[in-house]
Amino acid sequence: MPRRPFAWRVWRLRLVCQVVKLEIHPDPRYLLPDPVETLKAAEILVKEGFTVLPYINADPVLAKRLQDAGAATVMPLGSPIGSNRGLQTRDQFASLSSRPRCPWCGCRPGRAQPRERGDGTGADAVLVNTAIAVASDPNRMAIAFKLAVEAGRAAFESGLATQQQTASLRAR
């Protein structure tokens, strides 16, 4: 059966939902996002009137280009899909949160732990899948993530102490 034209597939999607979570990962082993094709597809989908939520590497240059193209948010990976390794791209996330941008979502945190301002890096939201999906008790794991995010936010709002390289008798 021949593939239908891209415009037809876009129109068919439009009949169901105006929001598109955009994930393009050409390598099925690693499922890492393709930045070039993601940007191209986002530009097309935004022009078609969709609200686009692209999954990307934690790349501030690509995030800015997607913002300029009209993406509603960006979702940088925290670790490879399904790896359940937690946040492996913390330093790259920091570069995203230091720039003016559209809201962004920290993807794939992997483990429930207190996370200030969503995920500890300045993300506006946290996207969790594998950790909940593969848990023995998914409902309890979802609750654990909810509580971890709330605890992290409360800690952030309370004024977290600055990390020190050496011991100190007084807090800074």
How many runs of DSSP E, i.e. beta strands? 5
In whole angstroms, the N-to-C terminal distance is 67 Å
Secondary-structure-based class equals alpha/beta
How big is the Rg?
A: 18 Å
Unreliable stretches (pLDDT < 50, length at least 5) are 111-119
What is the assembly state of the chains in this entry? Answer: single chain
Strand content range? 5-15%
Q: How much is the average pLDDT? A: 75
> Shape, please?
globular
The sequence of SSEs as H and E is HEHEHEHEEHH
- The spatial strand order of the largest sheet comes to 1-2-3
Helix segment count?
6
Describe the largest sheet.
Answer: 3 strands, parallel
Helix content: 25-40%
Q: Short description, anyone?
A:
39% of the residues lie in helices and 10% in strands.
